[in-house]
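haha ok so turns out i had the wrong file open the whole time. this is the CORRECT one, sorry everyone. sequence first:
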Amino acid sequence: MVINTEGPAEKAGHSNAPYVLVFHRMSIPKIPDIPDEERTPLVVFLLEVIRLQQEQIQALRDEIAILKGEKPRPKIKPSKLDSGTGTPDNDRDNDKGKRPGSAKRSKLGEIEIHETVVLKAESVPPGSTFKGYEDYTVQDIVLKAHNVLYRRERWQTPGGESMIAPLPQEVQTLNGGHFEHSLNAFVLYQYHHAQVTQPLILEQLRELGIDISAGQVNRIITEDHDELHDEKDELLRAGLEVSGHVNVDDTGARHKGKNGYCTHIGNELFAWFQSTESKSRTNFLELLRAGQTNYVLNAEAIEYMRRNKLPQAQLQRLIADDQWFVNEAEWMAALAARDITKKWHIRIATEGALLASVLANGINPELVIISDDAGQFNVLLHGLCWIHAERTINKLVGFNDEQRKALEASRTQIWDFYQELKAYRENPSAEQKPALEARFDEIFTTRTCFVTLNQALKRLHNNKSELLLVLERPDIPLHNNTSEGDIREYVKRRKISGGTRSELGRRCRDTFASLKKTCRKLGLSFWQFLNDRLCNTGSIAPLPELIRQRAAEAEPS
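then structure:
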């Protein structure tokens, strides 16, 4: 706080005038330097609380500055870990730490030549010897309207019937019949891959000479894609069938002006997105059923309900021979018939029946779910992302040199241990497991001078089994970067186009995001994929089939 003690009376020359306090600027007070001998545990805790409040005050000031159109206080973060041990934010496992896609490749070796022009040399001296050709390739792209008028013969038979020449098959199968498959593919590619908005696509097409309306552009993007929707739905079934683990995450996805969520499930073979109104565990288990609608009451369901503290009275009403319920309505009627009506009783019972349904429908019970510790994903075998876990340490700020040194030492130990786990994944050994477990305990039970750091370490130690699942399953990743990267493009689409307004639009957004990401993981051109599917050439196999094929090729012989 800055105080102006120069009052108006003093300015007029009256020495006995009272002071006028003017609060013309507020600043965060500096924390006093308290000697070590006076730092009781309570004082240390209160100082940490003050430090946290200072950060919250600064965050509110930054937000106010942004609302006023001003610049907030710049955030300058150290980058030691990015260039040192572990690279926690971008876990590069390639040989030299290069960014993906930076490897050198032949520039012209695989280019398809569409036209060859022979250039004659001028003023060749007599007696010269021809030595062949020196090739020089120039690349270009042709963007222009190409309209075809089909003059269809019309005949009248002797019996008075009309006959008309049919349109080519590729025209008959396209949306509306007046736009060629390549134009449809271009619109879909621009919207779903380049993330161009519909108004800009419309403007672009009209400038190229295409006579098309906004409604027709919207229909190309959203309608007549049933086969692609079916292929997208099969992606999840195929992916879960062949995978030992999946990465999962969710993000906001507004729909019809209301908050909703999009859940991502995938790994290095596939990516699958589904938007719903909820992100609860019930919702996640429903998605894991991969299109099935049944509920199962069996030993697995009862065990889940028992672990999650369903009261014994309600549990006894559900214990019976194995039962299958066709859909949600039949399941809810069964619960009502057993007098299970309380909301949280219904939730636990439903989660148990859904988990049993997931297992009964063929999902591997040893499937590992890798997440950022969101509670709804804690089913089957659950593994935690180390990068998200370490963020609880990374966000702490020490207010003196001693605490800053303790924090830095703790982070260094964590990322050194992370490197050891990565090495274990490459060459797993039963002899290493006890030493790594002991090292984990040593790091996360250390007591430091930083009370908040001690609490954060304790929380991470409580998650030991999920953080060290890799010791039992070296095939799983240590992080959730796959989901983080896959869902990022969905977030960009949301920022560009906002929420969806129709069920068809929401379904198309999920479908094309899933197909595009899966094509990229399988090394396929999304542009070629769209042309193949819209033209029905069948040159690219169904993506679920390719997923199963890649998984079979990756299995050790």
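The two ends are 72 Å apart (CA to CA).
again sry for the mixup
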